[in-house]
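Researcher: Good morning. I'm working through a list of sequences from a screen, and I'd like to move beyond sequence-only analysis. For each chain I'm collecting a predicted structure so we can compare shapes side by side. This is the next one on the list. No need for commentary yet; just the structure.
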Amino acid sequence: MTTIVICRHGHAEIGQRNSSDGDRALTLRGREEIRHAAAFLNDQDWCPTHVWSSPFVRAIQSAELLIAGLQYPGATTIVRALTPSGSVSDVLQALAEVPAESRILLVGHQPLAGTLVGRLLAKPMANLPTAATVGLRLSRAEPGGGQALWAHP
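Model: Good morning. C-alpha cells for this chain:
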C-alpha cells in the first residue's frame, strides 16, 4: 500500500513589493522547522521512494532540507499541481499512477496541502502550520482513500 507524507514548507520571507510569491525563500526559522520535520520522519523510520515539490523556492528549499535529513539518494520531481492554487484532482491523479508500495513525500503549500489531507480523509480542510507533516496510508488515491498515520506538530 502506498504511503504519503504531505509537508507544508517551512516559514518563509515576507513577500517584497514587485516580486513573485514563488520567489520567497525560507527564513532561518523555516530551515530549523524543516530540520525538525526531517528528524520526526526519521523517528518514524520513514524514508521516501519519491519526493515531489511545488516549483516555488520555499518548497524546493524545504524538500532539499528534508532530503538531506532523510538521506534520500534520489532527486526531487517538480509538480506544478502542488502550488498554493494547485489542483487536488491533479495531485490525486498523479498519486494514482505511482507503483504500489511507494512512499511519496509531497512538499507544498496551504491551502492545497490542507485541502488534500482533508479530501483523502473525507474530512474538512486541515489547517497545516508551516513545516507540518501528515502521514497517510492510501488504499486508493481518491476522496476518502486515506488513513491517518501521524501528524506533526
